[in-house]
């Protein structure tokens, strides 16, 4: 997955794509300059990636095709919204929608979320959303989960200590309980189940996967966590 981002980056720098790569989304990525960022572009501009730098920053990790990024940005024009994913098909489709709507407060990044988060200045992030990440359900797979202690410690450094938030949704009870145990251990605050983050327009921001699970009457586990104080 990381290679896809590297190929886009090389092509933006004028290199030709390897002959075996004829995926149209890879080439279309070049048409979304300023909207679809690569890892190196983010590293250069993470502190100042949007036209209005005074607006709070909301990041969605695993933004898929950009449905929630668009809803966040359209319904909260006083926020800057960044969607992160690791495949060029998803990121290009999301960037295409942003471009067609002429939105200036939304951007897409093709990158590993850990690397992207590490580039942010401390305290500069108002909110981070992780909706329905891969649960890696088997015991030997759990080491691959995104939401583990190192990530949560890094996130705590980057969130606004006063009113920053981490919004988590999953259909995996085991993943949810593991995150709850970690946040308790690390002294994060926790909302009631259906409380939404403060400052955002109170919409459900339902993901494609969430709608699918709800249609099957499967339980959804959700919380808004706040970073440790002091």
Break the fold down into its secondary structure elements and pairings:
Layout: H1 2-12, H2 24-28, E1 36-37, H3 39-45, E2 57-61, H4 67-75, E3 80-85, H5 88-101, E4 106-110, H6 113-118, E5 127-131, H7 149-158, E6 165-170, H8 173-185, E7 189-190, H9 208-215, E8 221-226
Parallel strand pairs: 1-4, 2-3, 2-5, 3-4, 5-6
Antiparallel strand pairs: 6-8, 7-8
Structure, explained:
- This protein has about 230 residues and is of the alpha/beta class.
- The chain has one domain: Vaccinia Virus protein VP39 (Rossmann fold, 3-Layer(aba) Sandwich), CATH 3.40.50.
- The chain has 9 helices and 8 strands.
- The chain has helices spanning about 1-10, 25-30, 40-45, 65-75, 90-100, 115-120, 150-160, 175-185, 210-215, and strands at about 35, 55-60, 80-85, 105-110, 125-130, 165-170, 190, 220-225.
- It has an 8-stranded mixed beta sheet, with helices on both faces.
- Helix 4 (about 65-75) links the parallel strand 2 (about 55-60) and strand 3.
- The longest helix is centred in the middle third of the chain and has 14 residues, at about 90-100.
- It is globular.
- About 35% of the residues are buried.
- The model has no long low-confidence stretch (mean pLDDT about 90).
What coarse outline follows from CA principal-axis ratios? Answer: globular
CATH superfamily membership, which one? Vaccinia Virus protein VP39
- Give the helix/strand class: alpha/beta
- Summarize the main sheet: 8 strands, mixed
**CATH class categorisation:** Alpha Beta
List low-pLDDT spans. Answer: none
**Strand runs, count:** 8
Number of domains: 1
**Into which percentage range does the β-strand content fall?**
15-25%
N-to-C CA distance:
37 Å
